[in-house]
Amino acid sequence: MLVANKLFAGEMDSHARLWTEFASLLRGLKDLNTHVLETAGVRCEVAGAHALSRLGLLGPVRLTELSTSLGLDPSSVSRQVTALERAGWVTREEDPDDGRATRLLLTEAGNEVVEVLRKARAEALARLTPDWTADDLDGLVDRLARLNHDLEANRPLLSVDVVRR
Predict the structure, then answer these.
(1) 94 — alpha (psi -120 to 50), left (phi > 0) or beta?
(2) How many CB atoms lie within 10 A of CB 138?
(3) Between the N and C ends of the chain, which has fewer C-beta atoms within 10 Å?
(4) Quick one: which H or E segment has residue 93?
(5) Model pLDDT for residues 57-91, shown as the tens digit of each residue
(6) CA-CA distances (angstroms) from residue 66 to 62, 101, 130?
(7) Do β-strands 90-95 and 98-106 pair in parallel, antiparallel, or remain unpaired?
(8) Contacts (Cβ under 8 Å, ≥6 apart) of 57
(9) pTM above 0.85, yes or no
């Protein structure tokens, strides 16, 4: 894809080139996620692994909070959570702030799977970026954090009313 990007780079503005790189990144992340699940021996869908990892970062939360954090519809996340519960990695507890609601939390086995996936992802990324220095990686992380912040903060600018102006 790098060759194609070089061929078209002169014909595209910076935002168009960014979108092209996003498309390549998405394909690469899909392949990476599939590889990580296979090598780690974790049997679940990629979406389930994302939910599991995010739950590991958030701690006990309601399904709606997990859905919001993932940027997904609660019904989609609910399906993944059900599969994670069946696997014994997620359980529900009564929400101490509202006895009518429940919170999702990782089981001990779920915490172990999250750690296995974290290590497998780190090992795969280290193999895929052998010539990157710590400064290179830190710089990319900083820029991605800035991009993620801006995408989230400016999401209202994508509303239909704003775009039509």
Answers:
(1) beta
(2) 11
(3) C
(4) strand 90-95
(5) 999 999 999 999 999 999 999 999 999 999 999 99
(6) 6, 14, 34
(7) antiparallel
(8) none
(9) no
